[in-house]
């Protein structure tokens, strides 16, 4: 049930992969800034990843950015050289390891799972909480829950209304079980694509596919779900057509899914 106490507007502008602008009222959050054009990108661990498309917007097209939500800083499809310029002089929320690696930038704050901090951006107060993920073994990655006084409390369950950003993760019990106990999710942004990492032990799925995204949307009771991170890289193994089909096949959530057009600001609620 839509909470009438949620008094904010939420819009999403998808740029490329996980890179997007999440606009809440007059505050712009930039998610996982990566603005490089198509080509090969070498990661810190030596792995070469291939990007197949250019971003829908360039750095010069961005509005004023109030804060950056960075799921992890060690993968080039979430943060590349061009995107790193957006971290300087801004509030940045990321993992604990990421905060150390990005030092000495004073605006960077690392969050452990379920750890929270508060910040005032453009006159609006937010509580930002890190959420668990399961991504590449040995590395840190985080999702985010955003709260604000204007979001209110859901009348049906008495839980705080929130916006959830998954970061890079597969479906895990910690999210399915804990998020609906703690929060009423009004908008969920979920990273899909079924990214596969070629490990010595064999291929490992490290982001959700459409079926897992549908399952997590059901599990957490999200009112609206916005798919991200489903195109532009060769290590993504599920096409956008297959993801659309899987989400549309789930009668419980198909009307909750909002597909956004790259480069176009789309009102979600």
Automatic annotation (TrEMBL):
SUPFAM superfamilies, alphabetized: Metallo-hydrolase/oxidoreductase
InterPro entries membership: Metallo-B-lactamas, RibonucZ/Hydroxyglut_hydro, UPF0173_UPF0282_UlaG_hydrolase
UniProt cross-references to Pfam families, sorted A to Z: Lactamase_B_2
Domain Metallo-beta-lactamase: 28-230
Top-level taxonomic group: Eukaryota
Span of the signal peptide: none
Gene Ontology MF: a single term: hydrolase activity
Sorted UniProt keywords: Hydrolase
UniProt-recorded name of the protein: Metallo-beta-lactamase domain-containing protein
């Amino acid at each position: 049930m839509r909470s009438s106490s949620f008094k904010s507007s939420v819009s999403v502008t998808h740029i490329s992969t996980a890179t997007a602008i999440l606009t809440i009222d007059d505050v712009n959050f930039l998610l996982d800034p990566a603005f490089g054009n198509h080509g090969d990108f070498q990661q810190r661990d030596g792995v070469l990843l291939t990007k197949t498309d250019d971003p829908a917007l360039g750095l010069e097209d961005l509005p004023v950015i109030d804060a950056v939500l960075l799921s992890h800083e060690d993968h080039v499809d979430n943060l590349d050289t061009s995107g790193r310029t957006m971290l300087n002089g801004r509030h940045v929320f990321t993992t604990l390891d990421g905060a150390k690696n990005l030092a000495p930038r004073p605006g960077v704050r690392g969050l452990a799972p379920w750890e929270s901090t508060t910040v005032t951006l453009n006159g609006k107060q937010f509580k930002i909480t890190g959420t668990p993920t399961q991504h590449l073994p040995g590395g840190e990655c985080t999702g985010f829950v955003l709260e604000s006084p204007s979001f209110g409390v859901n009348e049906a369950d008495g839980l705080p209304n929130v916006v959830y950003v998954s970061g890079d993760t597969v479906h895990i019990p910690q999210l399915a079980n804990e998020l609906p106990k703690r929060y009423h999710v009004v908008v969920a942004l979920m990273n899909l694509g079924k990214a596969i990492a070629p490990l010595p032990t064999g291929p490992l799925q490290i982001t959700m596919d459409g079926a897992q995204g549908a399952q997590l949307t059901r599990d957490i009771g999200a009112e609206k779900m916005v798919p991200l991170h489903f195109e532009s890289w060769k290590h993504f193994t599920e096409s956008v057509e297959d993801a659309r089909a899987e989400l549309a096949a789930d009668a419980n959530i198909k009307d909750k899914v909002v597909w956004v057009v790259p480069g176009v600001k789309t009102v979600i609620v």
